[in-house]
Amino acid sequence: MKELQFDSAVIGGGAAGMAAALELSARGLSCAVIEREDELGGILMQCIHNGFGLIEFNEELSGPEFAQRLEEKVRSAAITPFCGATVIEVEDNGEHKVISCVSGAWGVIRIKARAVVLAMGCRERNRGNIRIPGSRPAGVFTAGLAQRLVNIEGYIPGKDVVIIGSGDIGLIMARRMSWIGCKVHAVVEILPYPSGLTRNIVQCLKDFGIPLYLSHLTTNIYGQDRVEGVEVTPIENGALMFDRSFRIPCDTVLLSVGLVPENELSRSLGIDLSPMTNGPWVDSTLMTSVPGVFACGNVLHVHDLVDFVVEEARRAGSFAADWLAGRRKDKELRVKAGSNVRYVTPGRLDPARDNKLYLRTLIVKNDAVLEVRLNNKTVRSQKKSHVQPSEMISFNLGPSELAAARESPDSVLEVSIL
Amino acid sequence: MKQGSDTFDVVIIGAGVSGANIARRLCSYELDVALVEKEADVSFGISKANSGIVHGGFHHGSKYLKARLEVLGASMFDRLKAELDFPFERCGIVVVALHEDEMRSVEQLYTQGVENGVIGIEMCSRERMLELEPKLSSDTVGGLYAPGGGIVEPYRFVFSLVENAQKNGLSLLTDYKVVQARRAGELWTVTAADGRAVQARYVVNAAGLFADEVSRIFGAEEYLVHARKGEYYLLDRQTKAKPDRVVFPVPTSVSKGMLIVPTVEGTVLIGPTATKVDDKEDCATTREELDTILKSARNMIPSISEGDVITSFAGIRSVIEEDFMIEASAKVPAFIHVAGIQSPGLTASPAIGEYVKDLLKKAGLRLVEKADFDPFVRKVPRAKDLSPFELDALIQKDPAYGELVCRCERVTEAEIVEAIRRGHTTLDGIKYFTRAQMGRCQGGFCTYKILKIIMRETGMKAGEITKRGGASTVLRGEL
Ligand SMILES: Cc1cc2nc3c(=O)[nH]c(=O)nc-3n(C[C@H](O)[C@H](O)[C@H](O)COP(=O)(O)OP(=O)(O)OC[C@H]3O[C@@H](n4cnc5c(N)ncnc54)[C@H](O)[C@@H]3O)c2cc1C
Ligand SMILES: Cc1cc2nc3c(=O)[nH]c(=O)nc-3n(C[C@H](O)[C@H](O)[C@H](O)COP(=O)(O)OP(=O)(O)OC[C@H]3O[C@@H](n4cnc5c(N)ncnc54)[C@H](O)[C@@H]3O)c2cc1C
Questions:
Q1: Is there an atom of ligand 1 within 6 Å of A42 CB?
Q2: Alpha-carbon distance values, B408 to A318, A339, B291, B404, B438 (Å)
């Protein structure tokens, strides 16, 4: 069994993993990136649509183009990528973390590193998670799987499609399926508002005349061997209107019902997870509850824009480098989700420097206010022309706004959307 | 052995756990045996979707054939496991009483178990129950403990039985739906929907839910097999509510109730419900029933959470009357009914194999033991069970063991290829053989990889691959 040693190791070679590794290597540290697939890039590789990189590169790229830009940098940096290698276990031996991965080419490799960045991305929620009753025929796919089948493998999953859930991947697949000559009969969403980005609603549904049923629940899937249709029931004031249920015939159902950070490895390492994000709980340096293990990208919390992923990952890489250089955190203050906020991450801030926070709100609202209170005193009140759960909100807080926290040891920062 | 000939000593109709046990038992004798199955693979009937429990022998009184075969069958599993390499564990069974008045029934179960000769069965106080299973509800007042009860992966059991029977000469014919039978001289001619035909000196009808139809096709006794659906939820192995033993409620007069089963593979199964259905292929799940399951399971283990659900499914029980109906036809010659194999059919199945062998002998079939009978199957190393050192050694021999296909259940390409080479070429067949697609992402990540491996190994085209045979094609073509 091969054993290798690096200063740092990154698990997952998507946008997050590559960006974190680049930062670590820029700081003169040796770094291994371990990626299960045969190439770097992660989920970006199947997103052949445009819309990536507006912030990062100031131009509109496709997913693979965005990935390629990062990959070229990775290849020219002193980074060792292991592709086609799946991490099956991470152990914490105090001084070192030991990562075991399997690959056909090398067998089982054990990689020792003093710092580890988790960047495993996320997986899609499936039919079982949302409990759609009915039969279990062929023809039910998660939208991301369908995207992979069409864009990378070149297969047609079905001809007459209904999409359940209005997440971004589903919306993008509605357009993609229409382009390859399939008929998309409807997108069905349980909530009263779409869960994908507004630009995708316009470009992927409206432009193709695909109906979007908001406040509708898919109450059954029919079909013995292959899907034959779905039953859809309107929701009014929280109640299902079964007398107005209707059936949409189709041979294919795509599910776009949310993503879940992929934290099985984190869990086995004993890392504390947040029930709100399903990602690791992290401090102001994006370090998890296991010292020397950092997290970024979709494994930390589900992002909608790759540009934010890269930005977050860069910071994770940089904090990991600081940590390896012996820097330990100072006093931190606690961050709490206030009114109308589903989660804020990270869970701790360092009052002595600039911090970046991400949050998701629970509400759809125009003319909202982002309110930040430190020990019950408002330190920021910022207008937001529109907020909705599908669009992540990010903001910075610096030493001047956090000054009060440096005096009192048990400071709490509460973030609300009003 | 006249391999490939189409005249057999015995043709068994139905490759469920009953037919598979009968087939394997008969293949230990100098006989030509065929097993015919209407589905694309074996164990695609009732035997794929059930609770997977090797029962404790206390639920039924010994006046029932099913109770006698249950106790005998249960005792045969250790040896079968050693020979056939399928997941089985004697984890034990508890029955939980949540009210004082339920303790009367628990006593009855206890007495019944003792009368049936069950070893180690124990009446338990509240303290003993909570010591055995600390996750039980604080309302627990006492219960029953049967340490010999166990859990098994039913489809793997059937796959192993059939594979071993094939090794010993069995002819397996799948996609073979029996639609016609004629008797001429000493032989039955058994014809399939697609026109294929085999001849048999004896026929065993182990057609599960469709045993009544098959009986009719042969002009034998008229009876009706009723279908009773049972719905389940499957919980992620990460659930905090997993008990160590199978947890039963106190049964009612009509059903054993809804259970909590820690499966051999580490997930947790809750259910089944019991609803009479008209359509024997109606495996649809319903919202109401699923809600009932959660509620009932939480009565026993309150920490069971909806968030742990990874999938739901349903199985259908075949019920004629209160008992199994295993007997030679009185109406037509050389025809044995193995019908109404309701619960505990899985548990009883090894004993059903013995019983049917004896019935055939009584009906004149000559049994000569096969000198070279080989009771073992070739074990497939499973990546998930190996230490890193063992896995590394295996990858050096076969790099396909280094290609992880299903990450949730840690299944490698080598295992998928092995499944395909052993005849499991549908997505479901591969799922049951390897567990790939069975974990928390339910195939979200690995399905495309499996599709590609099937194409490579079998030469099938994209549009030909099915989920479970028939018209269940997965893809509609290529771009
Ligand atoms: C379908 C879809 C459409 C999107 N569209 C847009 C868009 O239009 N514009 C935009 O800006 N953003 C978009 N995004 C968001 C953005 O692209 C992603 O959030 C981002 O790429 C995620 O990067 P990541 O590195 O965190 O995760 P991933 O890209 O998922 O990378 C994780 C990597 O880790 C690997 N991995 C996981 N576990 C292991 C293990 N045990 N061993 C080895 N490797 C492992 C995986 O193989 C994967 O390559 C989209 C996202 C999706 C899913
Ligand atoms: C919800 C549920 C839970 C259960 N739990 C347990 C348990 O925990 N423990 C236990 O011991 N038992 C349990 N049982 C009972 C057990 O599952 C069954 O008794 C057993 O699987 C029956 O097996 P079988 O071979 O008789 O039927 P099947 O598995 O249905 O096999 C019959 C086969 O015949 C085939 N067939 C039908 N018609 C034709 C035809 N015309 N031509 C060719 N082939 C045909 C079918 O396709 C099928 O594959 C449970 C049952 C259910 C439904």
A1: yes
A2: 31, 36, 26, 10, 8
Q: Which of A55, A269, A306, A345 to mutate to test the pocket of ligand 1 (most atoms within 8 A of CB)?
A: A306
Task: Judge contact between B18 and B349, C-beta under 8 A.
Answer: yes
Closest CA to B198 of B1, B11, B3, B2: B11
**B interface test, pick of A45, A122, A131, A263 with most B CB neighbours within 10 Å:** A131
CATH of A126-257 among 3.40.50.150, 2.40.128.110, 3.50.50.60, 1.10.3660.10: 3.50.50.60
**Mind listing the pLDDT tens digit for each residue in B228-272?**
999 999 999 889 999 999 999 999 877 788 999 999 999 999 999
Question: Would the pLDDT of B368 be above 80?
Answer: yes
pLDDT at A372 over 90: yes
Confidence (pLDDT) at B158: 98
Q: Looking at the domain that runs over B383-464, which CATH code has it been given?
A: 1.10.10.1100
Which chain B residue has its CA at the smallest distance from A2's CA? Answer: B392
- Residue A104 to residue B313, Cβ atoms within 8 A: no
Range list for CATH 2.60.40 in chain A: 334-417
pLDDT, residue B5, reads 53
Q: What is the mean pLDDT of chain B?
A: 95
Residue B187 CA to residue A344 CA, distance in Å, equals 76
Give the percent of chain B with pLDDT over 70.
99
Nearest to B285 among A88, A133, A155 (CB): A133
Mutate to test the interface with B, among A2, A103, A106, A145 (most CBs of B within 10 A): A145
Return the pLDDT at A407: 83
- Contact between residue A277 and residue A345 where contact means Cβ atoms under 8 Å apart: yes
Closest CB to B475: pick one of A155, A180, A224: A155
Question: B434: Cβ below 6 Å to ligand 2?
Answer: no
Is the Cα torsion angle B253, B254, B255, B258 positive or negative in sign? negative
pLDDT at A94: 84
pLDDT in tens, A28-41: 999 999 999 999 99
Beta strands in A250-315 (DSSP E): 252-255, 259-261, 293-295
Alpha-carbon distance of A107 to A117, in angstroms, equals 23
Look up the CATH superfamily of B7-48+154-225+322-362.
Answer: FAD/NAD(P)-binding domain (3.50.50.60)
Work out the average pLDDT over B428-443.
93
Q: Do B287 and A133 touch (CB under 8 A)?
A: yes
Q: How far is B468 from chain A (nearest CA, A)?
A: 8
Cα B412 from chain centroid (whole Å): 24
User: Do A146 and A157 contact (CB within 8 A), yes or no?
Assistant: yes
Model confidence at A248, pLDDT cuts 50, 70, 90, reads very high
Please list, residue by residue across A386-411, b when 16 or more beta carbons sit within 10 angstroms of its beta carbon and e when fewer do: ebbbbbebeeebeeebbeebeeeeeb
State the nearest Cα–Cα gap between B365 and chain A, in angstroms. 40
Interface predicted TM-score (ipTM) of this complex, two decimals: 0.93
Cross-chain residue pair A133–B470, CB shorter than 8 Å: no
Residues of B assigned a catalytic role = 55
Measure Cα distances from A92 to A115, A270, B18 in Å: 10, 9, 49
B113 close to ligand 2 (CB < 6 Angstrom) = no
On average, the pLDDT of chain A sits at: 95
Quote the pLDDT of residue B1: 36
A3-13: average pLDDT: 98
Mean pLDDT confidence for B7-34:
98
The CATH fold of domain A2-123+260-329: FAD/NAD(P)-binding domain (3.50.50)
* Residue of B399, B427, B462 lying closest to A104 (CB–CB): B399
